[in-house]
Write a structure and sequence with these properties.
4 helices, mainly alpha, 76% helix, binds zinc ion, elongated
């Protein structure tokens, strides 16, 4: 069984999605039972988000989503246009 101190040790990996499936399940099980660690993870996630928002490597997810939509649209348009270029 995962202990609070174990969770604290791997919390940042959990937030970054870098834990293996087994560890991820262990963390989730622990969070279901432990309010302290839910608060801890919540705070940690919040500060990680803040850090990412202020980092120069920040990726604008909304922008990425719009680009994705544009690409999908043009692919669909091209398919329905039967190969004609634009
Ligand atoms: Zn705990």
């Amino acid at each position: 069984m995962l202990m609070c101190r174990d969770l604290a040790r791997i919390a940042s990996d959990y937030i970054d999605g870098e834990l293996g499936p087994m560890d991820t399940v262990s963390v989730k099980m622990h969070l279901l039972m432990c309010g302290h660690c839910r608060t801890f993870i919540g705070n940690l996630r919040h500060s990680v988000d803040l850090m990412k928002a202020h980092s120069s490597q920040h990726v604008d997810e909304e922008l990425v989503r719009r680009i994705d939509e544009r690409v999908t649209e043009s692919l669909n348009a091209r398919n329905s246009d039967n190969g004609k270029s634009y």
